[in-house]
Specification:
The chain has two domains: 43 residues; 247 residues, MetI-like (MetI-like fold, Orthogonal Bundle), CATH 1.10.3720. Helices cover 66% and strands 1% of the residues. The protein contains 14 helices and two strands, in the order H-E-E-H-H-H-H-H-H-H-H-H-H-H-H-H. Helix 1 crosses helix 14. It is flat, with a radius of gyration of 28 Å. The chain starts with 13 loop residues before the first helix and ends in a 12-residue tail after the last helix.
Length: 331
């Protein structure tokens, strides 16, 4: 009889197992070799500064003397004793609640109009994108000049219409709206991203919706927005991160409008002009680190900003499952 009840598994020779392990390690080594420039850059320019900043946040450090451990004193002072902390937080939250949504809506609106245009699309696209190429410092200087309450072209034009122009960057109630106008003016990058996403929406979806009787607004809300929702999520996340790190325009506007930029190039000390209305959170960080030389305290401010940024972005991404639709059928 040639029937076999069962066959025993033949063990793989030890030499073959060792060869497989060596081949696997060689593959891992090759991958690590190609990734080594990125890994080195990450550790040197992000990992080490992050760990060092976290350590400094628990010390008193003024760049002149060695860091001295103070525990949670910096964080206690940040929340309970620093009179400029809460104004900086309120200004940053105002910018996130007002300027960031307006940036996204304005960029999306321009993209929709360009997608529906029949003539001169390239010209209009260039015109709306060009402001994004302007350096932030130069753009802010131009806006401070245009919105000068005494000699600016905007207020001169309004006066000819019989309208009393506001003080713009010299008014605590108009400084942040002025910065918001500047932020909306420079949404060219976001507009291009939206335009590319809208153009990529399958045309048959619009045709099917039109056959079902959907008008322009219904096609916008039920076809365009769901189709580009991942791009919308990306734009919102990037805009929120930029809003939390908003610094350059606020610094330049406060410096120039406040008249504190000396011809010798000395650093301005009246950040937040007027009346702390432009004192955003990163501006406070800069003020403590490079004007007051409180590096330990500035590191605590930076670590709090990192934690809040991570928490806000994580909350947006986790809650995005309810309104972001992917073409692969997932959410």
């Amino acid at each position: 009889m040639s029937s076999v009840a069962g066959t025993a598994s033949v063990p793989v020779p030890v030499e073959r197992q060792r060869a497989r392990r060596r081949a696997a390690w060689r593959r891992r080594g090759t991958v690590l070799a190609f990734m080594s420039p990125w890994i080195a850059g990450f550790l040197i320019f992000f990992g080490y500064p992050l760990v060092w900043s976290a350590y400094l946040s628990f010390t008193h450090y003024d760049l002149l003397n060695p860091p001295r451990w103070v525990g949670l004193a910096n964080y206690r002072f940040l929340f309970h004793s620093d009179e400029t902390f809460w104004p900086a937080v309120k200004n940053t939250l105002w910018f996130l609640a007002i300027a960031v949504p307006l940036q996204v809506l304005f960029a999306f609106g321009i993209a929709v109009m360009l997608q529906r245009a029949r003539r001169g699309v390239g010209t209009f696209r260039t015109v709306f994108y060009l402001p994004a190429l302007a350096p932030p410092v130069a753009a802010t200087l131009a806006f401070v000049y245009l919105l000068n309450p005494a000699t600016g072209p905007v207020n001169i034009f309004l006066s000819k219409l019989g309208i009393q122009g506001p003080l713009w960057f010299d008014s605590p109630s108009w400084a942040k709206p002025s910065l918001t106008l500047l932020a909306i003016w420079g949404v060219g990058n976001m507009m291009i991203i939206f335009l590319a996403a809208i153009v990529d929406v399958p045309q048959h979806l619009y045709e099917a919706a039109e056959i079902d009787g959907a008008g322009v607004w219904r096609r916008l809300f039920y076809v365009t927005l769901p189709s580009i929702s991942p791009v919308l999520l990306f734009a919102v996340v990037i805009a929120v991160i930029d809003g939390l790190q908003y610094f350059t325009q606020a610094y330049v506007a406060a410096t120039i409008a406040g008249g504190s930029a000396a011809s010798t190039g000395t650093v301005a000390t009246n950040l937040g002009y007027p009346e702390n209305s432009t004192l955003f959170y990163p501006v406070l960080l800069y003020q403590q680190a490079f004007l007051n030389f409180n590096m330990g305290y500035a590191s605590a401010i930076a670590m709090l900003l990192l934690f809040v940024s991570f928490a806000v972005v994580l909350a947006i991404v986790l809650n995005s499952k309810r309104f972001v639709h992917f073409q692969a059928g997932g959410r």
